[in-house]
Specification:
337 residues, alpha/beta, five-stranded antiparallel β-sheet, 8 helices
Length: 337
């Protein structure tokens, strides 16, 4: 009887110790991931080694471009620059540094920002990891993600972007500041209240991440005569201002995105910051600002003072940024709030 009880105790001790060791390993693993730099493979193929050596070393596997890796350490050995990384959240190994990149804050007066929607994941990026590569390779400082909007047909039904969460996950992984944009088509006080409700509920659901830092952008556009508000521009500014004021009461910071000419003709007096769209013919990211262009609204000094962002292309840049996405320059002060 005693012998059986002793064996039982030994088995119980082994089980308890094993559980403790298992929990400690999980804790250490999670701590390493939390304290790591979140990188992404930018080489077409990148060898993942068991040891930081170039010869007589086991190659664990070959990593493909856009693979996510957690960078635990960086160092140089025998003239070669290495990263110690973790993959799949559990396996440690070593890769060449020049095959991996990660988000880095960019210093400058004008910072590059992309805005994206579900259509970009269908057209320009096969996966959210491909989008991560795009972010780090092009030194983006922020991302605007389409939340959804009100349909611009007569019914004015609301819709939500079907891929927003994938972009949120990518930005959270890389540590890139992001915000949402919402297409407004409200025509009256009742519809303003509806939009505030929809926007508030969306932000409560989607805006919980550590890197959700950019104000909501209200997208106020003309839809080539198809929009339910396209014939109401002379009356649009007061409605938009009521929407802005209502969102402010809900403690939702906002800016207004719109076409430069529309802002110039109808929206200049809004109490808001502007993100304006004007597309000159370019072959590289502009080293000038919107108000240095010859667009008519560029002489609007009031609009000038209120403008914090300039969307300069909706198709990428043929000679520099091949993905056909919307790109903007934002004043660095925009990110300091």
């Amino acid at each position: 009887m005693k012998k059986g009880f002793t064996i039982f105790l030994l088995i119980l001790v082994v089980i308890v110790v094993s559980l403790i060791v298992w929990r400690v390993k999980i804790y250490i693993n999670q701590k390493e991931i939390k304290e790591s730099i979140h990188g992404v493979v930018i080489a077409e193929k990148l060898a993942f080694y068991k040891s930081p050596k170039e010869t007589n070393v086991k190659q664990i596997k070959m990593l493909k471009k856009s693979y996510n890796v957690y960078i635990l350490d960086e160092f140089e050995k025998d003239g070669v620059s290495w990263y110690k990384v973790k993959i799949n959240g559990k396996t440690n190994g070593y890769v060449y540094q020049d095959g991996v990149d990660y988000y880095k804050e960019v210093n400058g007066k004008k910072l590059l920002v992309a805005d994206v929607s579900q259509f970009d994941l269908e057209k320009d990026f096969e996966t959210k990891e491909d989008f991560e590569v795009f972010v780090v390779e092009n030194n983006l400082s922020g991302v605007y993600i389409r939340a959804g909007g009100r349909g611009y047909g007569k019914e004015g039904n609301f819709y939500e972007d079907q891929k927003y969460q994938e972009y949120v996950d990518a930005c959270e992984y890389l540590g890139v500041p992001y915000g949402f944009y919402f297409l407004d088509e409200a025509l009256n006080t009742k519809e303003i209240k509806e939009e505030v409700k929809v926007i508030k509920e969306f932000i409560e659901k989607a805006g919980k991440g550590e890197n959700y830092k950019l104000p909501l952008a209200l997208d106020i556009e003309d839809h080539d005569g198809k929009g339910r508000a396209d014939d109401k521009w002379l009356d649009r500014a007061p409605i938009v201002q009521k929407l802005l004021d209502s969102l402010e009461k809900e403690k939702i910071d906002t800016i207004v995105y719109t076409n430069a000419n529309t802002a110039h003709l109808y929206l200049t007096d809004l109490n808001t910051k502007f993100w304006i769209a004007y597309y000159p013919k370019i072959k590289e990211v502009p080293n000038y600002w919107y108000f240095d262009t010859d667009q008519e609204g560029a002489t609007n000094t009031v609009l000038n003072k209120k403008t914090t962002g300039w969307q300069f292309t909706e198709n990428g840049i043929k000679d520099e940024i091949l993905s056909e996405v919307d790109l903007s320059l934002f004043k660095s002060s925009f990110f300091e709030k």
